[in-house]
C-alpha cells in the first residue's frame, strides 16, 4: 500500500481502494486507514468564511456542543453578529449544541427533511474541499487530517478566489492584491 501511495500521490483514498480491489484485495470503509472521519465546519454565508470546528471518528452530541462552545470563544465579540445558524437534522446536533448559539442570540433553523438544496453553501464547500484537497491525499489519521484542513481553510479563506465574491477570497481586504499580501 505504501508503494501505491508514493507512486500515485494524487489518487487519494478512493483511488488506492479501487486499485487494491482490482488487485484482488478486499478493502472496505472500516479497514485500517480507510475509516470514515467526520468533519464539523461552519460557514459564514455573507463572507463565505469557513471555520473548521473539529475532526473525529466518533462524533457525539457532547462533542458537537463542545465544538460550538470553542467556536463562540474563538469568535469573541464577533459571535454576537450572527443572526441565524442553519443546520441539518442530524441527531448529533442536540439541544446543548443549539443552546450554545441560542444563548448568544442566534436563531437556530433546522433544514427541512430531505432538502439538500437548503444547505447548498455547505454542500458546495464539502465538494470543493474533496475535489481540491482531500481527493489528492491519503489521510493517515485524525491529527494529519486536522493539519490538512487547517491549511486548506487558510487557503480557502485567504487566497482562493470565489465567484460569489467577485473572484475575491473571503478575508481579502478591498483594494489589496495577492502581490501586496506577498510583499507584506
Describe, in plain words, how this protein is organized in 3D.
- Helix 3 runs parallel beside helix 4.
- The protein is globular.
- The protein has 184 residues and is α+β, with helices and mostly antiparallel strands.
- The model has no long low-confidence stretch (mean pLDDT 83).
- The relative contact order is 0.13.
- A two-stranded antiparallel ribbon has the order 1-2. A two-stranded parallel ribbon has the order 3-4.
- It contains seven helices and four strands; from the N terminus they run ααββαβαβααα.
- The chain folds into two domains: 36 residues, no CATH class; 124 residues, Nucleotidyltransferase, domain 5 (2-Layer Sandwich), CATH 3.30.420.
CATH class of the largest domain: Alpha Beta
The CATH superfamily of the largest domain is Ribonuclease H-like superfamily/Ribonuclease H
Strand order of the largest sheet: 1-2
Q: Main sheet? A: 2 strands, antiparallel
Percent helix:
40-55%
Beta-strand portion reads 5-15%
| Beginning-to-end CA distance, first to last residue | 43 Å
Number of spatially distinct domains = 2
Number of helical regions? 7
Total beta-strand segments: 4
Short description:
The protein is α+β, with helices and mostly antiparallel strands and 184 residues long. Helix content is 41%, strand content 12%.
Topology, element by element:
Blueprint: H1 2-7, H2 12-22, E1 38-44, E2 49-56, H3 61-75, E3 84-87, H4 95-102, E4 107-110, H5 120-132, H6 142-158, H7 178-183
Parallel strand pairs: 3-4
Antiparallel strand pairs: 1-2
Helix pairs in contact: 3-4
